Amino acid sequence: MESLKARKKNITLVFNRPKHAGNIGSVARCAKNMGIGDVVVVTREEPDMEKIRQMSTHLALDVVERIRFVDSLDEALGSFHFIAGTTARTGSMRQPSGNPREVARTLVDVSQKNKVAILFGPEDIGLTNDELRRCQALITIPTSEKLRSLNLSHAALIVCYEIFLASTTVSSREPVSTTISSSARSLTLERASAICSSSI
Description:
It contains eight helices and six strands; from the N terminus they run βαβααβαβαβαβαα. α1 runs parallel beside α2 (about 50-55) and α1 runs parallel beside α7. The longest helix has 17 residues, at about 180-200. α1 links the parallel β1 (about 10-15) and β2 (about 40). It has a six-stranded parallel β-sheet with strand order 3-2-1-5-4-6. It has a single domain (about 10-200), classed as SPOUT methyltransferase, trefoil knot domain (Alpha/beta knot, 3-Layer(aba) Sandwich), CATH 3.40.1280.10. The chain is an alpha/beta fold.
Protein backbone atom coordinates (compact mmCIF):
# COMPACT_ATOMS: atom_id res chain seq x y z
CA MET A 1 0.00 0.00 0.00
CA GLU A 2 1.32 3.45 -0.94
CA SER A 3 0.91 6.64 1.06
CA LEU A 4 -0.28 9.90 -0.48
CA LYS A 5 2.26 12.36 -1.80
CA ALA A 6 1.97 15.80 -0.25
CA ARG A 7 1.02 18.42 -2.83
CA LYS A 8 3.91 20.62 -1.81
CA LYS A 9 2.87 23.40 -4.15
CA ASN A 10 -0.13 23.75 -1.80
CA ILE A 11 2.05 24.02 1.33
CA THR A 12 3.54 27.33 2.47
CA LEU A 13 5.68 28.19 5.48
CA VAL A 14 4.50 31.38 7.18
CA PHE A 15 6.74 33.21 9.66
CA ASN A 16 5.11 35.82 11.85
CA ARG A 17 7.45 38.66 12.89
CA PRO A 18 10.78 36.78 12.90
CA LYS A 19 13.52 38.61 14.79
CA HIS A 20 16.57 37.74 12.71
CA ALA A 21 17.00 38.00 8.94
CA GLY A 22 19.50 35.15 9.02
CA ASN A 23 16.79 32.79 10.25
CA ILE A 24 14.68 33.62 7.21
CA GLY A 25 17.55 32.58 4.96
CA SER A 26 18.09 29.40 6.95
CA VAL A 27 14.44 28.38 6.75
CA ALA A 28 14.47 28.99 3.00
CA ARG A 29 17.26 26.44 2.70
CA CYS A 30 15.41 24.00 4.99
CA ALA A 31 12.29 24.36 2.86
CA LYS A 32 14.29 23.68 -0.30
CA ASN A 33 15.85 20.58 1.31
CA MET A 34 12.38 19.12 1.82
CA GLY A 35 10.82 20.19 -1.47
CA ILE A 36 8.75 23.13 -0.23
CA GLY A 37 9.15 26.25 -2.32
CA ASP A 38 6.90 28.92 -0.82
CA VAL A 39 7.60 31.12 2.20
CA VAL A 40 5.65 34.10 3.55
CA VAL A 41 7.13 36.49 6.12
CA VAL A 42 5.08 38.93 8.20
CA THR A 43 7.19 41.99 8.99
CA ARG A 44 6.92 45.75 8.93
CA GLU A 45 10.66 46.21 8.74
CA GLU A 46 12.73 46.36 5.60
CA PRO A 47 14.16 42.84 5.18
CA ASP A 48 17.94 42.48 5.10
CA MET A 49 18.05 40.60 1.81
CA GLU A 50 21.85 40.36 1.83
CA LYS A 51 21.77 38.49 5.14
CA ILE A 52 18.88 36.32 3.98
CA ARG A 53 20.73 35.33 0.81
CA GLN A 54 23.92 34.68 2.75
CA MET A 55 22.25 32.24 5.13
CA SER A 56 20.21 30.50 2.44
CA THR A 57 23.33 29.94 0.30
CA HIS A 58 23.10 29.99 -3.49
CA LEU A 59 21.40 26.59 -3.38
CA ALA A 60 18.12 28.05 -2.15
CA LEU A 61 18.15 31.44 -3.85
CA ASP A 62 15.14 30.45 -5.94
CA VAL A 63 13.13 30.06 -2.72
CA VAL A 64 14.46 33.36 -1.39
CA GLU A 65 13.46 35.21 -4.56
CA ARG A 66 9.89 33.92 -4.15
CA ILE A 67 9.52 34.94 -0.48
CA ARG A 68 6.44 37.12 -0.05
CA PHE A 69 6.79 39.87 2.56
CA VAL A 70 3.52 41.20 4.00
CA ASP A 71 2.54 43.68 6.72
CA SER A 72 -0.06 41.67 8.63
CA LEU A 73 -0.98 38.14 9.61
CA ASP A 74 -4.40 38.65 8.06
CA GLU A 75 -2.77 39.28 4.71
CA ALA A 76 -0.42 36.34 5.15
CA LEU A 77 -3.14 33.80 5.95
CA GLY A 78 -6.04 35.13 3.91
CA SER A 79 -5.72 32.71 1.00
CA PHE A 80 -5.26 29.48 2.99
CA HIS A 81 -7.91 26.85 3.71
CA PHE A 82 -6.04 25.08 6.53
CA ILE A 83 -3.55 26.47 9.03
CA ALA A 84 -1.27 24.47 11.33
CA GLY A 85 0.38 26.51 14.07
CA THR A 86 3.54 25.61 15.97
CA THR A 87 3.81 26.08 19.72
CA ALA A 88 6.02 24.89 22.57
CA ARG A 89 3.41 25.74 25.19
CA THR A 90 0.37 23.62 25.94
CA GLY A 91 -2.39 24.03 28.48
CA SER A 92 -6.09 23.89 29.20
CA MET A 93 -6.68 27.20 27.41
CA ARG A 94 -5.31 25.83 24.14
CA GLN A 95 -6.60 23.20 21.78
CA PRO A 96 -4.83 19.83 21.82
CA SER A 97 -1.63 19.61 19.83
CA GLY A 98 0.16 16.75 18.09
CA ASN A 99 3.80 16.05 17.42
CA PRO A 100 5.12 16.78 13.91
CA ARG A 101 4.83 13.17 12.78
CA GLU A 102 1.18 12.93 13.79
CA VAL A 103 0.15 16.25 12.25
CA ALA A 104 2.20 15.67 9.08
CA ARG A 105 -0.16 12.85 8.07
CA THR A 106 -3.09 15.24 8.31
CA LEU A 107 -1.26 17.91 6.33
CA VAL A 108 -0.44 15.46 3.55
CA ASP A 109 -4.12 14.53 3.26
CA VAL A 110 -5.41 18.10 3.46
CA SER A 111 -2.87 19.37 0.92
CA GLN A 112 -4.39 17.24 -1.81
CA LYS A 113 -7.18 19.77 -2.41
CA ASN A 114 -6.46 22.69 -0.09
CA LYS A 115 -3.88 25.41 0.42
CA VAL A 116 -2.06 24.76 3.69
CA ALA A 117 -0.09 27.22 5.82
CA ILE A 118 2.34 26.14 8.54
CA LEU A 119 2.59 29.07 10.93
CA PHE A 120 5.63 29.88 13.08
CA GLY A 121 5.84 32.66 15.67
CA PRO A 122 8.68 34.96 16.73
CA GLU A 123 11.79 33.29 18.08
CA ASP A 124 11.45 34.79 21.57
CA ILE A 125 7.74 34.44 22.42
CA GLY A 126 6.16 32.21 19.77
CA LEU A 127 2.56 32.54 18.69
CA THR A 128 0.01 34.20 20.97
CA ASN A 129 -3.22 32.49 22.02
CA ASP A 130 -5.19 34.68 19.61
CA GLU A 131 -2.89 33.71 16.75
CA LEU A 132 -3.17 30.03 17.62
CA ARG A 133 -6.97 30.28 17.53
CA ARG A 134 -6.68 30.88 13.80
CA CYS A 135 -5.27 27.37 13.40
CA GLN A 136 -7.11 24.15 12.65
CA ALA A 137 -4.20 22.10 14.05
CA LEU A 138 -1.34 22.69 16.47
CA ILE A 139 2.13 21.19 16.31
CA THR A 140 4.35 20.78 19.36
CA ILE A 141 7.87 19.41 18.88
CA PRO A 142 8.88 17.19 21.82
CA THR A 143 12.05 18.44 23.50
CA SER A 144 13.95 18.11 26.76
CA GLU A 145 12.40 19.96 29.68
CA LYS A 146 15.83 21.52 30.24
CA LEU A 147 15.54 23.58 27.04
CA ARG A 148 12.27 23.64 25.14
CA SER A 149 12.99 26.55 22.81
CA LEU A 150 14.21 25.63 19.32
CA ASN A 151 15.95 27.75 16.74
CA LEU A 152 13.38 28.83 14.15
CA SER A 153 15.10 27.06 11.25
CA HIS A 154 15.52 23.87 13.31
CA ALA A 155 11.79 23.81 14.09
CA ALA A 156 10.94 24.44 10.44
CA LEU A 157 13.25 21.66 9.28
CA ILE A 158 11.72 19.13 11.68
CA VAL A 159 8.19 19.91 10.53
CA CYS A 160 9.13 19.91 6.84
CA TYR A 161 11.04 16.65 7.23
CA GLU A 162 8.02 14.93 8.75
CA ILE A 163 5.85 16.08 5.85
CA PHE A 164 8.47 14.80 3.44
CA LEU A 165 8.64 11.49 5.30
CA ALA A 166 4.86 11.11 5.54
CA SER A 167 4.50 11.50 1.79
CA THR A 168 7.16 9.00 0.76
CA THR A 169 6.12 5.73 -0.82
CA VAL A 170 5.92 3.00 1.79
CA SER A 171 6.80 0.27 -0.68
CA SER A 172 10.03 2.05 -1.67
CA ARG A 173 11.49 1.89 1.81
CA GLU A 174 13.95 -0.90 2.38
CA PRO A 175 12.83 -3.21 5.18
CA VAL A 176 15.02 -2.96 8.24
CA SER A 177 15.84 -6.20 10.02
CA THR A 178 15.37 -6.09 13.77
CA THR A 179 16.50 -9.68 14.29
CA ILE A 180 19.95 -10.28 15.79
CA SER A 181 21.64 -13.38 14.47
CA SER A 182 22.70 -16.05 16.98
CA SER A 183 26.39 -15.47 16.17
CA ALA A 184 26.04 -11.70 16.69
CA ARG A 185 24.16 -12.29 19.93
CA SER A 186 26.89 -14.60 21.20
CA LEU A 187 29.60 -12.11 20.30
CA THR A 188 27.69 -9.32 22.05
CA LEU A 189 27.30 -11.41 25.20
CA GLU A 190 31.01 -12.33 25.15
CA ARG A 191 32.00 -8.66 24.89
CA ALA A 192 29.61 -7.66 27.65
CA SER A 193 31.01 -10.42 29.88
CA ALA A 194 34.58 -9.30 29.20
CA ILE A 195 33.73 -5.70 30.06
CA CYS A 196 32.05 -6.73 33.30
CA SER A 197 35.02 -8.95 34.25
CA SER A 198 37.55 -6.20 33.63
CA SER A 199 35.64 -3.74 35.78
CA ILE A 200 35.60 -6.04 38.85
